[in-house]
Specification:
The structure is a single chain. Helices cover 27% and strands 50% of the residues. The chain is of the alpha+beta class and 96 residues long. The chain has a single domain, classed as Alpha-Beta Plaits. The chain has a 4-stranded antiparallel beta sheet with strand order 2-3-1-4, with helices on one face. A hairpin with a 2-residue loop joins strand 2 and strand 3.
């Protein structure tokens, strides 16, 4: 199993409960495909360097998880089409 970090930027205009539900859905995608969520780091609302989809800010979350190599691909395929996700990026962390 490898260690991964998924950065998810959520729409800043949605309500707190909807944002929490979206984050839980992302974590559920990871566990459904065989990954294990180890940590969720919430950075809160941050201003973008430039407008993204006519928005000036978003909520940043960093989800650390352990998984096989196929899991990040499956998770990205589902996160890509989520309505409240503005941007996402999944990277493999160094093993050192």
């Amino acid at each position: 199993m490898s260690k991964y970090e998924l950065c998810v930027v959520l729409n800043a205009t949605i309500e707190d409960d909807e944002r929490t539900a979206t984050l839980e859905k992302v974590k559920d995608y990871i566990t459904t495909h065989g990954g294990t969520v180890t940590d969720v780091d919430e950075w809160g609302k941050k201003r973008f360097a430039f407008d993204v989809q006519k928005m000036k800010e978003g909520y940043y979350y960093f989800i650390h998880f352990d998984a096989e190599t196929n899991v990040p691909i499956e998770v990205e395929n589902r996160v890509r089409i989520m309505e409240n996700v503005v941007r996402y990026l999944c990277v493999k962390q160094d093993e050192a």
